[in-house]
Amino acid sequence: QQGTVTVRVLVGADGAVERAEVADSSGFDSLDDAALETVRARWRFVPARHDGVAVESWVLVPIRFALLEANAVH
């Protein structure tokens, strides 16, 4: 399975993920779920600023899952 999941993230004024939802599915529930779980549990952002003050804002984040070909070792 491979594809790109676009996650819509509400970033708090402190840079923490307040909400995350799938904006555009990869077509595979397992990839969509992995992207959401990773963003919610592990990611932090630099918050947007308005007049120099950190504010919450929405951001779209594409997360690409790709299979890579392994090189054979002889």
What summary fits the major beta sheet? 3 strands, antiparallel
Oligomer kind: single chain
Give the termini distance in whole angstroms.
Answer: 27 Å
Percent range for β-strand residues: 35-45%
Q: Sketch the topology as an H/E string, one letter per element.
A: EEHEEE
Number of domains: 1
SS summary, helix count: 1
Number of strand segments:
5
Overall structural class, as computed from helix and strand content, comes to alpha+beta
Strand order of the largest sheet: 2-1-5
Radius of gyration: 15 Å
Broad shape: elongated
Unreliable stretches covering 5 or more consecutive residues: none
Q: Summarize the amount of helix as a percent range.
A: 10-25%
Average of pLDDT = 94
Give a structural overview.
With 74 residues, the protein is an alpha+beta fold. It has one domain. The chain has one helix spanning 29-42, and strands at 3-11, 17-24, 48-50, 53-55, 57-65. The protein has a 3-stranded antiparallel β-sheet with strand order 2-1-5, with helices on one face. Strands 3-4 form a two-stranded antiparallel sheet. The protein is elongated.
List keywords for this structure.
alpha+beta, three-stranded antiparallel β-sheet, two-stranded antiparallel sheet, 5 strands, 19% helix
Question: Topology, please?
Answer:
Layout: E1 3-11, E2 17-24, H1 29-42, E3 48-50, E4 53-55, E5 57-65
Antiparallel strand pairs: 1-2, 1-5, 3-4
What's this entry about, in short?
The protein is α+β, with helices and mostly antiparallel strands and 74 residues long. It has one domain (3-65). The chain is built from 1 helix and 5 strands, in the order E-E-H-E-E-E.
